[in-house]
């Protein structure tokens, strides 16, 4: 039985992967950025996962159009605010929003620390407007390598009091967690919680590595890894769109 009077929460929502298709269209027009389609209906298949993707990287490329239109810090602030508005529309009382500032900054060479500040501002304003409680989790996008992740970490640490935890996500096979040990040491020294995307592509051995070496407390994985891993206390996705 579902008790609809209980507060509704979402503890795994990607801010930079939750950009409205209409906002992508609006910002594309505002900044004169060429998009793969010019109407909302025809744009949606390019920016949302509407069918099964062959692998993790193909799945993640669906998110690229959303960040390609982030040509200003105001645009970043807008999508952060709209994330809270959408959370309120979904009936959420509490949401944990995770975002990769380097990924959001990349297409238009925005200052990474500026992106962090813009996201913080947008989320704060959204929470004040819509009455949703939110926490922010910074993501290091492993896909772009160790140096890029270090830049993200430095930008997040510049606003450490507004960030709850550090995450690692992206191309797990190409960039294993062992490359980021020093990054997570700094995050723990800052007093942050640790959460890791593990076992999505590399299997249960990646989960064990995240536990033993990265110090993660929460692990985001999927069912094949769950079957083969004797770990208690991690989140398992029963279905995956690739």
Automatic annotation (TrEMBL):
Q: What is its EC number?
A: 3.5.4.4
* Gene Ontology terms: biological process: adenosine catabolic process; hypoxanthine salvage; inosine biosynthetic process
Zinc found in the keyword field: yes
Q: Give the Gene Ontology MF terms in alphabetical order.
A: adenosine deaminase activity; metal ion binding
Q: What GO CC annotations are associated with the protein? A: cytosol
Signal peptide positions on this chain? none
Which family is it part of?
Answer: Belongs to the metallo-dependent hydrolases superfamily. Adenosine and AMP deaminases family.
Q: Which cofactor does it need?
A: Zn(2+)
Give the top-level enzyme category.
Answer: hydrolase
Its name, as the record gives it, is: adenosine deaminase
Asked if the Swiss-Prot or TrEMBL record annotates the protein with the keyword Metal-binding, the reply is: yes
Q: Which UniProt keywords apply?
A: Hydrolase, Metal-binding, Zinc
Can you give the residue ranges of the Adenosine deaminase domain?
7-215
């Amino acid at each position: 039985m579902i008790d609809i009077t209980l507060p509704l929460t979402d503890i795994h929502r990607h801010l930079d992967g939750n950009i409205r298709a209409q906002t992508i269209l609006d910002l594309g027009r505002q900044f004169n950025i060429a998009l793969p389609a010019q109407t909302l209906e025809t744009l949606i298949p390019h920016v949302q996962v509407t069918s099964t993707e062959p692998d993790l990287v193909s799945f993640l490329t669906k998110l690229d159009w959303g960040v390609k239109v982030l040509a200003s810090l105001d645009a970043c602030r807008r999508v952060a605010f709209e994330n809270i508005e959408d959370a309120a529309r979904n009936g959420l009382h509490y949401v944990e929003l995770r975002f990769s500032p380097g990924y959001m900054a990349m297409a238009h060479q925005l200052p990474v620390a500026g992106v962090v500040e813009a996201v913080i501002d947008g989320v704060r304003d959204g929470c004040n407007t819509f009455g949703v409680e939110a926490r922010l989790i910074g993501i290091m996008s492993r896909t772009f390598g160790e140096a890029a992740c270090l830049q993200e970490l430095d930008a997040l640490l510049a606003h450490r009091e507004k960030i709850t935890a550090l995450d690692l996500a992206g191309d797990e096979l190409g960039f294993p967690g062992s490359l980021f040990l020093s990054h997570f040491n700094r995050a723990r020294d800052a007093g942050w919680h640790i959460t890791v995307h593990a076992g999505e592509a590399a299997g249960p051995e990646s989960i064990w590595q995240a536990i033993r070496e990265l110090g993660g407390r929460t692990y985001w994985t999927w069912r094949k890894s769950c079957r083969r891993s004797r770990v208690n206390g991690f989140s398992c996705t029963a279905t995956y769109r690739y």
